Amino acid sequence: MFDFFNRGQQPTAKQIEKTVKRLTEPGGEEAPRIEAAEKLADWGTPDALYALLKRFTISSKVITSDIEEKRMVVGMLVEKGTEAVEPILRFLKTHHQVEWAVQALSQILPHEELVAKLVSVLQEEVAGGDFAPPEHRASLIQAVRGRVTPEIAEVLRRFLSDDDDDVRLAAIDAIAEAGEPMREVLLETFIENVDGTRIRIKIADIFADREWPVKGYRPKVEEMLPGGFQVNAKGLIRRK
Q1: 33-85 pLDDT, tens per residue?
Q2: Cα(146)–Cα(178) distance, rounded to whole angstroms?
Q3: Gyration radius (Cα) of the chain, Å
Q4: For the chain, what is the largest distance between any 2 Cα atoms, rounded to a whole number of angstroms?
């Protein structure tokens, strides 16, 4: 009997769907999930690799095993090299569980190319797309933490006026990584958020930690500072 599951055989959409069901079953033993992951990796088609990434969308009951399985999937994707890039980007555009996927991509692409790809996803798919739910926007912004260049910071500025607080908070944290050149951008965001206490506390914390001055904005900042903060004689925000 011809074996449709042999290595290299092009899988059908139905075969992939059936395998994904086993891959994303959070209960039961880990063996069926691992077997499903190996099957998708062996097939190695773009659709199969995209399906493999769906392991990141669920958490199994045993936390240690869950982490190990996800690390295993990252390894499988990295082993595929550039063949996995487009499936990963497709996943980033459609799912908010992006941490592990970005980890895989960062091991495949050189830093400069990785940054360019992440910026592209943020610009074209998330920032410009009405479909992206708040958790997707926030998750992808958090995923670029530790990799924020001035170019990425500029892309992230549009999220400072997002309707969702968690998205704005994620953008503030990420933008701050670009350093003091973003000082005025954050101070303007502070002043604009008259009713955004969480936003103002976040920015005040960043300025207190980094010792950035509020020069040029002091009167308004002092007027709007949340309780527990003050501006000292040097124009620095301090915690009381």
Answers
A1: 999 999 999 999 999 999 999 999 999 989 999 999 999 999 999 999 999 99
A2: 10
A3: 22
A4: 83
Q: Is the pLDDT of residue 194 over 80?
A: yes
- Name every residue whose Cβ is closer than 8 Å to that of residue 23 and which is 6 or more positions away in sequence: 33, 36, 37, 40, 51, 52, 54, 55
CA–CA dist 164, 133 (Å, integer): 10
pTM of the complete model beyond 0.70: yes
Determine the Cα–Cα distance for residues 166 and 139; give it in Å rounded to an integer.
10
The two three-digit tokens of residue 188, written as one number: 């303007």
- Helix, strand or coil for residue 194? coil
